[in-house]
Amino acid sequence: MDKDEQHHRNLFLGLDLSTQQLKVIALASVQDNDGHSFLEAHSTFAIQFDTDLPQYHTQGGVTTEKVVSADPGKGHDGVVTAPVLMWVDALHRVLDRMQESRFPFERVVAISGAAQQHGSVYWSSHAQKAFRALQSIHGEQTQSSLIQIFKDAFTIYQSPIWQDTSTTSQCQEIEEFLGGLNQDDSRNAAVDRSALRQRGSQRLAELTGSKAYERYTGSQILKIVRSRPEIYQDTERISLVSSFLASLLIAQYASIDAADGSGMNLLDIETKTWDPLLTQFISQGGHHGQGHMDRDQGHNTLVDKLGEVDATDVKIVSFTGDNPATVMALQAQSGDAIVSLGTSDTLLLYTHTHGSKSGQNSNGPGAQANARLSIGYLCHPVDTNGYLMLYCAKNGSLARERIRDLYADRSWDKFAEYLKRGIRSVRQPMDQHSAVCTRTGFYFFDREIWPPVKGVYRFQNGEFVEEFGPNDDDKDDGDIKSANVLAICESQLLAMRIRSSQGDGVSTATTDSVAPPGISRILATGGASSNQVILQLLSNVFGVPVVCMSSDVKQGAGSAAWGAARKAFLYGHRNAGDDTDMDVIHSRSVNMESRMVMPDLEETKRYIERIPDFIRLELSLPQAME
Ligand SMILES: Nc1ncnc2c1ncn2[C@@H]1O[C@H](COP(=O)(O)OP(=O)(O)O)[C@@H](O)[C@H]1O
Ligand SMILES: O=C(CO)[C@@H](O)[C@H](O)COP(=O)(O)O
Predict the structure, then answer these.
(1) Cα of 586 from ligand 1 centre, angstroms
(2) How do residues 1-31 score in pLDDT, each as one tens digit?
(3) Checking CA distances to 151, which of 78, 121, 341, 532 falls within 20 to 30 Å?
């Protein structure tokens, strides 16, 4: 391709409003010498909330408020929110940066986006006026900031986000409601509430794909209905973070995408429509949250600051959650698990069932350990018959950062060095004592999703200890440091391995007997996937090769933004009359110059042996609820 041609290539834009930043990637569609099409990064931009927008005083992109529960048995409720105007500001700033760097907006053919899942945005009746003000800009560069336009457009200015764990009682209410439906015993005052909840939890998982989770939008809305009914009344529309971002671009309310919508505990995962009973229960007869589902429809609306483009040529394709968008980027095949080590640690598996028919959540002994307590199912972002099994741990990168700061001089290089040393010392014990020394650590700086535990717990040879250390004079300080660095990574990845085989519809076929059922390869992504030693440990724990998009390909934008841009590419073509089917779409593969890490299977066997003890220790931790 000559230079002239390159300068006229179409661009596809992907945005990702994640927990800590807003990222944008522009992909260009190119052909190799054999005529194969693929996408390559043209440019990337990012606004870091903490550092680029310090006036919002966020830490890790969020505002954390600690409220002591009225019920002493319930401990502290963690209210975690993000300033909605900070997100508006971030969009304005990133568009400014793009203009400053002379980004060729006129070449943008289609745009899509992704965002952190489950968080919700509450629009006021002023929103329509703001949208009209945005539409009236008509391609001119606006002098007034988006903040000025949207400053009165919300009823709630601190949006609840996925890290919030303050809705335990609302989750229980939802489960009791479903558990009591059509049951005579629900009217019996003596009926065991926990039995009712267990039945409700099962029904909710069958209906929506997930049991009640505090971070899911349904319980968050219920909390607002209960605690601030006037605000709820004044709310004209509720968006997810993804549809909120899309609304700013299309200057009208954007629909919620089914894949992201299935992370709300409100959507019937099979029919992909709002469940009438759940929405009615939550709104108490109101009509909020009853948006319509409109998957992957293009919109032709003028976008502020993308005004140089002829609006009729710009397709804005429905925005989705960051996890479904990551699936779009990595093109997982059968046997692939996607592991995203972003702010959260997540594992995604592509399945063809959402587990409703196989009677999970057995009531027998150990049911609590085996129940789907940290996994759920989402609709697949493009395969209308597909689902995604999702495991999410809240204490991911930020917990590793805390350990890095405590034990590794605030340096990722040191962290990697200690991790390597930790792995080496377990493999080649230096003395008789350390040969029998097993260390396990749980580092839940924020209350974890499962187990619902807050605190740091270390065990040495099965016994609780305040700090690791064999009291061996030969040991230097570095041993304690590397023990903690290794312990946090091991326990995060072991927990992930254990949950990976809890789902229904997870294939039992596997290419290697030491690997978890149905997993023959891991596609790793997220900020921490740039750490080669973490990837090696991930590979060892799962016993499968780990592949990672190389960082120069990602150019720092991450795979959710890449997946969104890829969605823009696919639907941009479709909207232009190209009726390309899924297979052809898959063969137009993304240029993934990847790195591969191979497992040390002796290590894998050692981890498998540790699993029963790990589960026992995990269950022994003091839980914050029930
Ligand atoms: N070399 C590294 N080793 C481990 N973790 C890292 C490294 N570099 C960055 N990270 C982690 O990546 C995280 C950000 O990941 P990212 O995928 O961008 O998050 P999000 O999309 O949720 O905003 C940071 O919180 C940081 O802890
Ligand atoms: O809650 C979940 C998934 O259920 C999180 O994965 C959020 O979607 C936030 O994502 P990251 O910012 O960690 O990528």
Answers:
(1) 28
(2) 444 455 568 899 999 999 999 999 999 887 7
(3) 78
23 contacts 90 by C-beta, under 8 angstroms = no
* Helix (H/G/I), strand (E/B), else coil: 62: strand
Predicted confidence (pLDDT) per residue in 210-241, tens digit: 999 999 999 999 999 889 989 988 888 899 99
- Confidence at residue 462, expressed as pLDDT on a 0 to 100 scale: 87
Structure tokens at 468: 């690791």
CA distance linking residue 505 with residue 350, whole number of Å? 9
How far, in Å, is the centroid of ligand 2 from the Cα of 448?
13
pLDDT at 557: 66
- The answer to whether residues 263 and 117 touch, using CB atoms and an 8 Å cutoff, is yes
d(CA 443, CA 511): 32
Residue 321 CA: which ligand 2 atom is closest? 8
Instruction: Read off the DSSP letter of residue 256.
Output: B
User: Quick one: average pLDDT of 368-377?
Assistant: 63
- Ligand 1 contacts (CB < 6 A) are 18-21, 342-343, 397-398, 400-401, 412, 526-528, 530-531, 534, 558
pLDDT for position 314: 54
Q: For residue 278, how far is its CA from the centre of ligand 1 (angstroms)? A: 36
Query: Is the CB of 342 within 6 Å of ligand 2?
Result: yes
Could you tell me if 243 and 319 are in contact, meaning their C-beta atoms sit under 8 angstroms apart? yes
Contact 175, 152 (CB under 8 A): no
Contact 490, 423 (CB under 8 A): no
**Residue 527 Cα, ligand 1 centroid: separation in angstroms?**
3
| Phi, psi dihedral angles at 595 (to 5 degrees) | -105, 145
Residue 611 CB partners (closer than 8 Å, separation 6+): 494, 497, 498
All structural domains of the chain, each given as residue ranges with its CATH number in brackets, are 3-167+214-318 (3.30.420.40), 348-508+596-626 (3.30.420.40)
pLDDT digits (tens, 9 = 90+) for 611-621: 999 999 999 99
Closest ligand relative to 377 C-alpha: 2
Specify which residues 185 forms β-bridges with: none
User: CB of 343 closer than 6 A to ligand 2?
Assistant: yes
What kind and span of H or E run contains 421?
helix 412-427
For residue 323 and ligand 2, the question of a CB distance below 6 A is answered with: yes
Q: Ligand 2: does its nearest atom lie under 6 Å from the Cβ of 320?
A: no
For residue range 143-180, what is the model confidence (pLDDT) as tens digits? 468 999 999 999 999 999 999 999 999 999 999 989 88
Place of tokens 């085996």: 370
Query: Which pLDDT band, with edges at 50, 70 and 90, does 301 fall under?
Result: very low
For a pocket test of ligand 1, which of 343, 551, 555 has the largest count of ligand atoms closer than 8 A to its C-beta?
343
Give the distance (Å) from ligand 2 centre to CA of residue 617: 26
Provide the pairing of β-strand 546-549 with 521-525.
parallel
| Ligand 2 close to Cβ of residue 18 (< 6 A) | yes
Q: Is the ipTM of this complex over 0.95?
A: yes
